[in-house]
Design goal:
The chain is an alpha/beta fold. It has helices at about 5-10, 45-60, 75-85, 130-140; strands spanning about 15, 20-25, 25-30, 35-40, 70-75, 90-95, 100-105, 115-120, 140-150, 160-165, 170-175, 190-195, 205-210, 230, 235-239. The longest helix is centred in the N-terminal third of the chain and has 14 residues, at about 45-60. The chain starts with a helix and ends with a strand.
Length: about 240
């Protein structure tokens, strides 16, 4: 919650679809600068998590997740509980995390072909240099009628590849744009894009941040983006 809003008497209140909290959301200050109304103070969800939760709930209307096998990469704690209750079989995986079912390289998965009905990997592929192999591997282990949710941060007007991981971006190897999702079409039959604009503003799924201060020393390859409210996008990939 920003001091400006308190002093002006305008405290913005939102509803968190993850934990049902209602009230002010908290500003955060990553290396990219202040991001307003980003964090739910109860469950710790960020803008992307709330949007992803809304997308999953919408998919649940027409899909019986209780009969599906799910694979979750880099599992977020609050999503673990939610997915474990929602899906018939819930499996976690990551390269570096130790509290997962499988400690694996996403570009060399040990699973059989068509083993899972649903794959969720949020903000993973921007860390993977050989992302096309990772995408192909996830498609390989997905069943013919399966679904994959593979969002990346949309922080550029066009995708920019880095020569090496940027430590100020948690080791990102690229600054993705919406055009990044075109890469998925090489492996998946159909892609649907769901954005912040598709859901009520009460859930606060937008990114309120000034992106005009790049490029700079920490982000030498990033390019400025106009505006201070940016949409997030969740790609729904159908096998």
């Amino acid at each position: 919650m920003s001091a400006f809003n308190i002093f002006k008497g305008r405290i913005n209140k939102y509803t968190c679809p993850v934990c049902k909290y209602y009230g002010p959301f908290t500003d955060i200050n990553p290396d990219t600068g202040c991001r307003k109304y980003a964090l739910c103070p109860k469950c710790g969800s960020l803008e992307r998590h709330r949007l992803q939760h809304l997308v999953i709930n919408r998919l649940a209307v027409n899909h019986d997740f209780s009969k599906m096998r799910m694979l979750h990469f880099a599992p977020e704690e609050f999503f673990r509980k939610y997915f474990k209750k929602l899906f018939g079989v819930y499996t976690t995986a990551d390269l570096n995390m130790h509290d997962v079912d499988y400690q694996v390289d996403i570009t060399k998965l040990p699973f059989k072909d068509a083993e899972y009905d649903f794959i969720f990997a949020s903000h993973v592929l921007e860390h993977i240099k050989d992302d096309l192999t990772a995408i192909s591997e996830m498609r390989r282990v997905l069943k013919p009628a399966g679904i994959a949710i593979l969002p990346v941060p949309i922080v550029s007007e066009e995708t920019i590849e880095y020569p090496e991981p940027n430590p100020f971006e948690s080791g990102h190897v690229r600054a993705p744009s919406v055009d990044y999702y075109e890469r998925y079409r090489k492996c998946f039959s159909r892609i649907e894009l769901s954005s912040s604009n598709d859901y009520p503003s009460e859930y606060q799924t937008f990114l309120y941040e000034d992106r005009s201060n790049v490029p700079n020393e920490k982000f030498p390859l990033r390019r400025a983006m106009a505006g201070e409210r940016h949409i997030d996008i969740v790609p729904i990939c159908f096998a």
